[in-house]
Amino acid sequence: MVLSHTRRLLPRGFYHTGILKQTKFINQEQSSTTSSIPSAEDTPLHIDESCVQRLRYVSSQRGGKPVALRVAVDSGGCSGFQYTFELTEEKPAENETVVERNGCKVYVDDISLPLLKGSTVAFVEELMSSSFRVLNNPGSEGGCSCGTSFSPKMS
User: Fold this and answer.
1) Where is the Core domain (predicted)?
2) What is the pLDDT averaged over residues 25-51?
3) Are the CB atoms for 69 and 105 separated by under 8 Å?
4) Using one digit for the tens of pLDDT, what is the confidence trace for 90-133?
5) CB of 56 closer than 8 Å to CB of 123
6) Could you tell me if residue 55 is inside a domain?
7) What's 84's domain CATH number?
8) Three-class SS of residue 61?
9) Which of 2, 40, 122, 132 has its CA 20 to 30 A from that of 115?
10) CA 7 to chain centre
């Protein structure tokens, strides 16, 4: 299932106004001398090893083509905002930050990034389902029991 990454948070056509930042790349390569998850100051989003393994599996099922995960926040869901995920073989858009770990990439648009800062993207396998999820979102005040929507903290 492919979900659209069109934002309802901004007026239609906002991304085509030319007021976009350059694509940013953040690398979370794992090394033997550092911890496997960089600190929140180093990266706005953490990629769990389970996410890396799932993206590699999907890539192998698609004949070895590189596959990235696009993560976004959209209005809706039972708590006000919901996480959306899309597997893509496309290059990142100009308004997206690329977070990379061990060769696997996650794209996050500049509008969603502040709402996801400090979170972890993981692939969770349970008895009834398996899916990509955003875990430990420090910007979330609460959420639904299935973990697909959240209520942001109000400062």
Assistant:
1) 45-147
2) 63
3) yes
4) 999 999 999 999 999 999 999 999 889 999 999 999 888 899 99
5) no
6) yes
7) 2.60.300.12
8) helix
9) 2
10) 14
Give the total number of structural domains in the chain: 1
Pick from 37, 39, 41, 99: nearest CA to 69:
99
Residue 2 lies in a domain: no
Range of the domain at 77: 41-152
Residue-wise pLDDT tens digits, 65-75: 999 999 998 87
Q: State the alpha helices, DSSP H only, in 24-135.
A: 49-61, 113-116
Q: 18 in the Ramachandran plot: left (φ > 0), alpha (ψ -120 to 50) or beta?
A: left
- At 95 the pLDDT is 95
Whether 72 is in a domain gets the answer yes
* Nearest-angstrom CA–CA distance, 137 and 141: 9
Q: 54 Cβ partners below 8 Å, 6+ apart?
A: 123, 132
